Amino acid sequence: MSAWEIIEGEALTRLCAMPDESVDAVVTDPPYSSGGAFRGDRTSATSIKYVHTSVKKQRPEFLGDNRDQRAFVLWCTLWLSECYRVAKPGAPIVVFTDWRQLPSTSDAVQAGGWVQRGVIPWDKGLGSRPRIGGFRNQSEFMIWGSKGPLPSRRDVGALPGAYHYSIKHSDKHHIAGKPTALMRDVVKVCPPGGVVLDPFAGSGTTIVAALHEGRRGIGIEMSTDYAAIARDRCAQVEAA
């Protein structure tokens, strides 16, 4: 394969078409189906749930973020099971989630066949929304695990158990985009030269990070708008 590929389509359908044991790591940021300040916000548009009113830049909506709780857990189990199939033995997985969906995502990771190995906090800094009389929801989380026993890889080494990266709007290409610097650190769990799979590629930050760090990447994205952004970003890295 070339250094990168962005496949447009629904994640589960595209995963089912991939060959067994063909990727070295799975690093992904699926839709959380949460967000907002109230219980009913689950069904709101992503531009309402996840965008501060002070932010003037408009980005495309993203899809698949309105499932109820039972549907969310079942859906995650399905795509995580397919990721398990296409991953090589011993491959690591990293799945982003928020505080609301942390228990459900943890259950789905294990139901999908993966060995859960820990939870890594990502501290977003004081730019997150404050909660008067309580604590800021300042962190999101990464559940990580492996397909069976985790091999000891000196070329990967021992990675940090927590990360602190603030969100910079100049580096944000998606409503729920993660910092490129954060993802460059996270994809290091994949062996150098290996293939990182992201079935929810969004604007392509995981694949961009993989290219920067000497890995290859396969991204799947359902939104035509975001798939185009992801391809443009990957092409820019490849051409640099």
Overall average pLDDT: 90
Question: Hey, roughly how much beta strand do the residues contain?
Answer: 15-25%
Distance between the terminal alpha carbons, to the nearest Å? 20 Å
SSE order, one letter for each helix or strand = EHEHHEHEEEHEHEH
The percent of residues in helical segments reads 25-40%
Radius of gyration over C-alpha positions, nearest whole angstrom? 17 Å
Uncertain runs are none
- Derived structural class: alpha/beta
Strand order of the largest sheet: 1-8-7-2-3-5-4-6
Based on Cα principal axes, name the global outline.
Answer: globular
Number of strands: 8
Describe how the helices and strands are arranged.
Layout (H helix, E strand, L loop, with lengths): L3 E5 L2 H6 L8 E4 L17 H4 L19 H18 L5 E6 L4 H10 L3 E9 L15 E8 L16 E2 L15 H7 L8 E4 L6 H8 L3 E6 L2 H16 L1
